[in-house]
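An instance follows:
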Amino acid sequence: MKTIRERDRELIWHPYTPMKIWPEAIGIVRGEGSSLIDEQGNKYIDTISSWWVNLHGHAHPYIAQKLSQQLLTLEHCIFAGFTHEPAVRLAERLLDILPGEMRKIFYSDNGSTAVEVAIKMALQYWSNKGVSKKRIIALEGAYHGDTFGAMSVSARSLFTESFAKLLFDVDFIPFPGDANAENSILHLKQLLLNDDVAAFIVEPLVQGTAGMRMYNKEVLSEYFLLCKKHNAIIIADEVMTGFGRTGNLFACDAVSISPDIICLSKGLTGGTMPMGLTACAQHIFDAFYDEDILKTLYHGHSYTANPLACTAALASLDLLLTDSCDANRERINKSHTRFLASLQNNKKISAARLLGTILAIELNTGTHTSYHNKQRDFIYRFFIDRGILIRPLGNIIYLMPPYCITGGELNEIYNCINELLEII
């Protein structure tokens, strides 16, 4: 009998994978806590929460129980002209804890579409008000997704190169690294002076795909203050940073000025079901609330507000908002902090950074730091061979584990990182 790996190789096209030179995928048969188990019984510590989605561990019994109950009640129904309890309840609970003055929830099915909806909301907002504002500003190095609008507001890179001529123009301001914060703020200020900026979109505090690049809350606050002053809509892409990853429940909790629109996905359902949503302030919704049907937001998905996904999100919130989850996140942060201190003055490391449960280590490989650094595949296989799933961003390794990860598992990961540093 063929293995899952062999059957997959004949049929499946995997994401972000050069299929000719990386033809085989590990066949996973089950998940358990912070680990994945393959068809040979090998266990892998999932240090990246399976692309940043898993908050509470794999196959969590509480989420599974809630989903099982919902399956016997309502699995799905059209969300145009109909609604249901899980969708309404989830909106009620999220609006209670989201930063700022969010008042409406628009459901979709992944992070890219949550961003796509936000862009359409922002551009049509001004169109509905009869104001000519069409420019969008983003950060250099940004990644907001793979649909066309999301690609347009993302950095021009190998991800977008084949579609470059089809993307709409966006103004990018410099990333606000330690030595470049003032320059970045100045660029934003100059662009806003023209009074034609529809929106500013940003990954608050951490740029994920760019290498877990981090910047301080004072810069984020200044960005938001300038946008408010010049009447530009603020879109906070919290797809990755939401649900406790940065320490606070949401990255925007770190600043007093609130965005107009927030995009969520990934940790929304605790890694159980695909789901995204876009939350907005009342004034955004009001621009669409009109008897003129041409002012309607004509956007939707067949699986909008799927009751199972909403139920998973509600169960994940139950777990997230417990004292034990808070304690776990604090425990992970303290553990990362101690490990980071042990790496001080290590010449194999060119940079290291930490925020909340996110730890990033930039390895000095003798070549330029980039997503396609030649050491990437070696680093990946080094950890996989030792039962640890780390998916490097080029020569940058990072940890963003499920909150249930144990101290012993963290130490096992740290020891392997030290072992890698001895040989590179």
